[in-house]
Design goal:
Blueprint (H helix, E strand, L loop, with lengths): L7 E2 L10 E2 L1 H6 L14 H4 L18 H4 L1 H7 L4 E5 L8 H21 L7 E5 L10 H5 L3 E4 L6 H5 L4 E6 L3 H10 L3 E3 L5 H12 L2 E3 L7
Parallel strand pairs: 3-4, 3-6, 4-5, 6-7, 7-8
Antiparallel strand pairs: 1-2
Pfam families: UDPGT
InterPro entries: UDP-glycosyltransferase (IPR050271), UDP_glucos_trans (IPR002213)
GO molecular function: UDP-glycosyltransferase activity
């Protein structure tokens, strides 16, 4: 018995399509046998859009960081910042956190050799402190790396603070569009389904990098 079952999309006969398999269903893990999902449709849904710029991207409005977290806003203003947020659903394990900590330490060390006289590069990382190894302890003590398991300010607010120089994310739609609309270069670490699509998009559009094509995230 197959673990993953096909999800079938039925469209009207005038469209000339039936039993169209959605590849994402395999990745999402549809485990029930013989289940068909039928999606209703009507002509207006298929009509073209003359000016898509009126509708997309859809980004929720958010207040400036200084209005919801003055302390964070003050810290962000101290220097150029890498913003790391791998989304709500992904939970980093100790091995992932250790490897990322090593990478960030190397980034900070390299930045220090390039800008020894200017404002130091800093990192805001949405991650629980318990997962971080000794790799970043010196930077945490000097307050150049801030770790938090939750941010009061919306991601859009943080990205719009004028301090973020790079957004590191899992490549979710919201993360992609929020960084795009803020004009922030992106480094994506995709872990599932559509995140890989956005990782390809950032490279195709020249606005970022798919940071690691051999592991997820």
């Amino acid at each position: 018995m197959e673990v993953l079952k096909r999800l079938l999309l039925f469209t009207n006969s005038d469209f000339g399509q039936a039993n169209v398999v959605l590849a994402t269903a395999h990745e999402l893990g549809i485990a029930c046998e013989d289940v068909e999902i039928r999606i209703a449709s009507f002509q207006d849904l298929r009509s073209g859009v003359d000016d898509a710029s009126r509708f997309i991207p859809i980004i929720r409005a958010a207040p400036p960081t200084r209005e919801v977290d003055a302390g964070l806003a003050e810290w962000l203003s101290q220097g150029s910042t890498i913003y790391v947020n791998l989304g709500t659903h992904h939970k980093s394990n100790p091995t992932e956190a250790h490897q990322m900590s090593k990478a960030f330490r190397k980034v900070l060390e390299h930045a220090d050799t390039l800008h020894s006289a200017g404002k130091p590069l800093q990192i805001l990382w949405k991650l629980g402190r318990a997962l971080v190894t000794d790799e970043l302890q010196a930077y945490i003590k000097s307050d150049r790396v801030r770790l938090t398991d939750w941010l009061v300010a919306e991601p859009k607010s943080v990205l719009g603070s004028q301090s973020i120089v790079c957004s590191v994310s899992h490549g979710g739609a919201n993360s992609f569009y929020e960084a795009l609309c803020s004009g922030i270069p992106q480094a994506l670490l995709p872990a599932w389904t559509d995140c890989y699509d956005f990782a390809n998009r950032v490279e195709l559009l020249g606005i970022g990098l798919w940071a690691n094509k051999e592991a997820k995230p």
